[in-house]
Amino acid sequence: MKAVGKAALEMMNEVRRQFRENPGIMDYTVKPDCNKCILISTNASLKEMMIPGLLVILLRLCSLVSYLARALWWAFWEAL
Asked: In this structure, are residues 14 and 36 in contact, taking their beta carbons and an 8 Å threshold?
């Protein structure tokens, strides 16, 4: 929820900046820069999803190492 709040605050500041720098947006003579808002939203979502993505990858690697260790341990004891 905090990530959504931070992204919304940054988006709101960008919209305010655009209204302040381009007053023609209010009377439809100037088009707003929508790409900047999309960039803010995309960057915020990517930044917040980095830790869960890394967690998934690390858990997969840990389970693979655990499986290989058990397989090698079993093969070692079967060889004796």
From this structure: yes
Residues 20 and 6 grouped into a single domain: yes
Q: What is the pLDDT of residues 17-40, one digit of tens each?
A: 999 999 999 999 999 999 999 999
The model's pTM:
0.69
pLDDT digits (tens, 9 = 90+) for 45-71: 999 899 999 999 999 999 999 999 999
- Check whether residue 57 and residue 38 sit in a common domain: no
Domain range for 22 is 1-48
Rounded CA separation 80/77 (Å): 5
Q: CA-CA distance, 4 to 52, in Å (whole number)?
A: 16
Count up the domains in the chain and report the number. 2
